[in-house]
Write a structure and sequence with these properties.
By secondary structure, the chain is mainly beta. It has one domain: Single Sheet (N-terminal domain of TfIIb). It contains 1 helix and 5 strands. Strands 1, 2, 3, 4 and 5 form a 5-stranded antiparallel sheet that branches.
Length: 64
């Protein structure tokens, strides 16, 4: 993932910076507890497509 791209990308749920996990090929939002996939080099920043890292805090729970 290019550093310039990481500088401008934010989590669509929390609007916080994302961290690149090269091993998993995902963009990590620690604040939301989500991992966004990168498919064919394109970040998929849809909450519905993200993988949960752990149970979400109640204030960020998408099902509420």
């Amino acid at each position: 993932m290019r550093e310039e791209l990481l500088e401008i990308l934010v989590c669509p749920l929390t609007r916080t910076k994302l961290r690149w996990d090269a091993e998993a090929g995902e963009l990590i939002s620690q604040a939301a507890g989500l991992a966004y996939p990168v498919r064919d080099g394109v970040p998929v920043l849809l909450v519905e497509e993200a993988r949960s890292l752990e149970p979400l805090p109640p204030r960020l729970n998408r099902s509420s």
